[in-house]
Amino acid sequence: MTEDVAADLKQFITGIITQQTADIRQDICRIDRRLENLDTKIGGVESKVSSLEAKIGGLEIRIGGLETKVYSLGTKTDSLENKIDNGFAAIADALEDINNANEVQLNQHGKRLTRLERKVFKEDYHGPIRQT
Length: 132
Description:
- The protein is mostly helical.
- It is 94% helix and 0% strand.
- It has one helix at residues 3-126.
């Protein structure tokens, strides 16, 4: 191999290596830009996740408040149910007392009517009743 051929070969190899190195640098630059874009997008996603976490935290607090209110309403409903039951029991007792009083009064009226009917029928068939 002559020196000229060796120099040409050396120049050829250097040219290929330089071209390959330049291509690799371009690939690295493209990859670097893509990574930067990914970092930006990941930062946006992280920001959105943080925002969602904050919203979820707020919702958990609201749900806790609603659970407390529902429990309170349940307690109030139980209390109201007991009051209604007591009210209905008192009404039932009062109605029973009224019915008993009406029954006694009705029995007394029945006795009076029976006596009056006897007097009336006695007068109709036997003339006026004489008191002796």
